[in-house]
Structure formats: structure tokens, C-alpha cells
Design a protein that fits this description.
By secondary structure, the chain is an alpha+beta fold. It has four helices and two strands, in the order αβαααβ.
Length: 104
């Protein structure tokens, strides 16, 4: 597993509100994981499921989707495994409760 990403400062987290995180997709994927929307931590780092302690990466490995536990900065490696990530809403917020009904 790669070294953890540096932790964003409170100012960086606040500045991340409303940012978009690029999808990790390619033609002919076997599985596309769809999140609700990225959180501020992901917005600050530019990585999906980036907050330390997020269960996505260990669960992905334990479920047999990846040969080892990947880190958020290794997201592009998913493409070689036929996996991708997108979000219903590509706008970072502190919680999904901040999304409007029209966005969902």
C-alpha cells in the first residue's frame, strides 16, 4: 500500500467545498462503483474515498476486487482491473445531506 496522503488543513477542507472529483472510468468496465457525492476530504486531496479510515479501500480488497489493498492515490490502478468510480453528484460537500433534491 502506498504512503498515506498528507492531511489537508482545515482551510484546505473549507476551500474544497463544491469541487468536482474526476471520474475514474474507461470503456468496458466490469464494475462501476457509484458514490453519492465526494466529501470535503476527497475534494481537498482530489482522490475518491480519501479520508483515513474510509472503509472503501479495505473492503474492496477483502471482497476480492483487488489483489492488495490500494490507497486513494492509486485509484487509476482500478482501471487495469476492470473497475471504475463515479458519483451521482460530482460536487463535494461535508455531508450528503447538503445536496439538494434536484441534484439527486
Amino acid at each position: 500500500m502506498a504512503a498515506p496522503l498528507p492531511r489537508p488543513t482545515p482551510a484546505e477542507l473549507a476551500a474544497a467545498a463544491g469541487r468536482a472529483i474526476p471520474d475514474t472510468i474507461a470503456p468496458h468496465l466490469d464494475v462501476l462503483f457509484v458514490g453519492i457525492n465526494p466529501g470535503l476530504y476527497s475534494g481537498a486531496t482530489g482522490r475518491h474515498f480519501a479520508r483515513p479510515g474510509n472503509r472503501f479501500w479495505p473492503t474492496l480488497h477483502r471482497a476480492g476486487f483487488t489483489p492488495r489493498q490500494l490507497a486513494p492515490d492509486e485509484t487509476r490502478e482500478l482501471l487495469g482491473l476492470g473497475l471504475g468510480i463515479t458519483n451521482i453528484v460530482n460536487r463535494t460537500t461535508a455531508t450528503a445531506a447538503e445536496l439538494g433534491r434536484d441534484e439527486l
